Every structure is written in C-alpha cells, then in structure tokens.
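Dear colleague,

Thank you for sharing your sequence with our group. We've completed the structure prediction you requested, and as agreed, I am returning the results in plain text so they can be pasted directly into your records. Please verify that the sequence below matches your submission; if there's any discrepancy, let me know and we will rerun it promptly.
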Amino acid sequence: MNTAALRLVIQTTQVRARDSGEASRTFADQAARNASDGASRGPALERFASAYVDKVPDALEALLLQARAVAFEAPLAQVLERALAGFAPAALAQAPSASLALLAAAYRVHRLLEGLQDRFAAWWGATCAPAAPSLGNLIAHQVLGQLTVDALEDAVDGWLDDLDASVEPRLTRQCFQPRQSRTPLASPRAPLTRSRQRQRSVR
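Please find the predicted structure tokens below.
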C-alpha cells in the first residue's frame, strides 16, 4: 500500500475543495443543520474534518508495521484495498461534495481500524495502530448523518466478517463469537437485519 500516494490524493483534494470554496460551503451547511449558531462553527468543523482525514495515512502505516511483525500483511491486503476505494481520485471527483466524500472514506477506515485493533489485541496481545479517534468518529458521525453512517458501518462489518472467515479457525473460535447488537456510537440504531446480527463479540 502506497501511503505517500494516499497523502497526495488527500492533500490535492483538500486544496481543491478549499480553493473552490466547496469545503467552506459544505461545512457551513453541515454545521447549520446541527446547531443554531452553525454558521459560525463552519470553519472549526472544516478544520476538524481536515485533521481527521489527515490521520488516515499515519494510522495505516502503524497498522502495517504491526501486521508485518506478526506476519499478517497478506490477510489484510484485500480488506485494506476495499477500505481505501473511497479515496480513489475518480470516486472523489464524481462525488457531489469531495469534502464529505473524504470524510466518509476516513470514517470508514477509522472504524475498520477499531475492529482490527480488537482482533490484534485478542489474537496477539498487541494493538495494531494508535488509538482510534473516538471523539472524532462521533463528530464525523453527526456530520455525515445516520443513513450514511449505517451504510459505511455495514461495509466495515462485512469486511471484518470476511477477514474473520479467512484467518486460522482457532483464532476466530477463540475470540469472535456472534453477538446480537453493536455498541452504539451515538444515537440508537434501527433493529438489525438478519444479516447484521452476525456481529463480532469484541469491538
């Protein structure tokens, strides 16, 4: 995985969105939807989003270092490829808002890393990356909205299910049994569908 190229895509997209005014308009609108004084909070929300997205390459580099230490790079390759699809230049260029597309892609990666942290800790007694930005995830959740977040987390759940199925059976049996519900990140969730009841017991 080329994190240098990922950084360049992120920086290029952020600069373009900032210079065109798209970023300021987008986050002013999003802030206004969440607070009565939202217009004044738009710049702070824009700075938050930029910093939140910027954390992704560093977190991925830390993950890869830990994966290399336990010879787990190959099983991670496919899930990371899928997770990073949201940062593809073509996908960002086609999005109605590049700023929100970046935020959504970063949210998906950060939530994936939370699941991977649980697995690395359970399987090898080691964390796989710096602590996931829980407060940042909560703010991103509020900005993106429940419907978008539901779709993003469904994707992450599916990737982690696939990873669980691909690793040594003894690891999966030892650490991850089905559970009935996910710990909510913010607001209560709608009832789970049958397919989403296959949740992992550690998050």
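Summary note from our side: The chain is about 70% helix and 0% strand.

Kind regards,
the structure core
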